[in-house]
Design a protein that fits this description.
single chain, about 400 residues, alpha/beta, Aminopeptidase, Alpha-Beta Plaits, 2 domains, eight-stranded mixed beta sheet, 10 helices, about 25% strand
């Protein structure tokens, strides 16, 4: 599939796509608040003959051939819309105009890529026999995340045969494509441990049951879960990221709180980690004379698993676009998480990465205050999605 003669290609669209991306970057919106972004995408799609419908409050679903939906094969392409609740530190002319909100993961670029795809598909609509469903998803970021889960619940993947998503990644070489069969991003299980002891004056620790000392020992003990509980198999990360206790220098508090995250690529591994964590929590509490309880937060995302067949589609397309030497699974799977996992639980799916790391530079990574999506990835992202469409058309013939 290619645009008919005389119609714009990806290269000719690039100046417009840059303007769109910079505008989205300057006006970032948090999860389920992407009203301005939604309006811009809706207007773009409507002008090109789509009939977008609202999904998950601030998301959109649009079909290339709505009249064929459910009658012809349908593949879905997804982009995320939301920003992060953080400050931008760049001096870009299109830097964020909102304090405490910034596109520091590249969702502005992902949205722009899918808008470019929508344009080219619309111009070649009559030449495309299958239906392409465009998913503009809100609220991917875990702070307010789960937009994919809501879209699934509202039927966004009903009668969809396959779904594909992408993400820029400065940790991979610019212009490379990374994809892998099976697990590609981790399951997340967040936890909180409450420690309750006996407080008192800091000059008389013998009269207290210090939850800080118990917590310190527990933090160290938790680091043995992977090294001694899983051994050479590994496959998990346990990180304590919050330790809260006390607010005065001369008082031993009666309470402390630990919070953190577990990342793994198999549900069974997470279960083993949690079982060992309970043992250590209860044992450490008993050893130091404090009450210790573990609570789990199940709002984290499940493991993201690529269908081997869909991952092979991505590889075929990438081989043609960037060359076989620049397509690999190096660095995968990674311990980050993605709510695209909810889509992949429903239908065969593939999620892949576009390398954004510039040679000879320490390119700021995603979620870094100096991060900015690299506009050079816009044409590659568009061509990857278009290539997937071409590949699926060829599979029908």
């Amino acid at each position: 599939m290619a645009p008919p003669a005389g119609l714009p290609d990806t290269a000719s669209l690039l100046p417009v796509l840059r303007e769109i991306r910079h505008d989205l970057h300057a006006h970032p919106e948090l999860g389920f608040e992407e009203t301005r972004t939604q309006a811009k995408v809706r207007a773009w799609l409507t002008e090109r003959g789509y009939s977008p419908t609202t999904c998950a409050k601030t998301g959109l679903v649009a079909d290339l051939h709505p009249e064929r939906y459910g009658q012809a094969p349908t593949i879905a392409l997804r982009a995320d819309l939301d920003c992060l609740p953080m400050q931008e530190h760049t001096d870009l002319p299109y830097r964020s105009t909102h304090d405490g909100r910034a596109h520091k993961c590249g969702h502005d670029g992902h949205t722009t890529i899918l808008m470019g795809v929508a344009d080219i598909l619309a111009r070649a609509r009559e030449e495309i026999p299958l239906n392409v469903r465009l998913l503009f998803q809100p609220a991917e970021e875990g702070v307010r995340g789960g937009g994919a889960k809501v879209m699934v619940a509202e039927g966004a993947l009903a009668k969809v045969d396959e779904v594909y998503g992408l993400h820029n990644w400065p940790g991979f070489t610019k212009g490379h494509v990374r994809v892998i069969d099976g697990p590609i991003m981790a399951q997340v299980q967040n936890f909180e441990i409450a420690l309750t002891g006996v407080g008192g004056h800091a000059s008389q620790p013998q009269r207290c049951r210090d939850p800080i000392v118990a917590g310190a020992h527990l933090v160290a003990a938790l680091q043995t879960i992977v090294s001694r509980g899983l051994g050479y198999e590994g496959g998990a990360v346990v990180s304590v990221t919050v330790f809260q206790a006390g607010d005065a220098v001369n008082i031993i508090p009666d309470r402390a709180r630990l919070r953190g995250t577990i990342r793994s690529f198999r549900a069974e591994t997470t279960e083993r980690v949690v079982a060992r964590m309970r043992e250590l929590t209860e044992g450490t509490g008993a050893a130091f004379g404090v009450r210790a309880s573990l609570e789990l937060d199940d709002t984290g995302y499940p493991v993201l698993v690529n269908s081997p067949a869909c991952a092979e589609v991505v590889r075929r397309v990438a081989d043609r676009l960037v060359g076989e030497d620049n397509v690999s699974d190096l660095g995968l799977p990674m311990a980050g998480s993605e709510d695209f996992a909810y889509f992949a639980q429903q239908v065969p799916a593939a999620y892949f990465f576009l390398g954004a790391g510039r040679d000879g530079e320490d390119t700021p990574g995603c979620h870094h205050p100096d991060f900015d999506f690299d506009d050079d990835l816009l044409p590659l992202g568009v061509e990857m999605f278009l290539g997937i469409v071409r590949d699926r058309i060829a599979a029908l013939s």
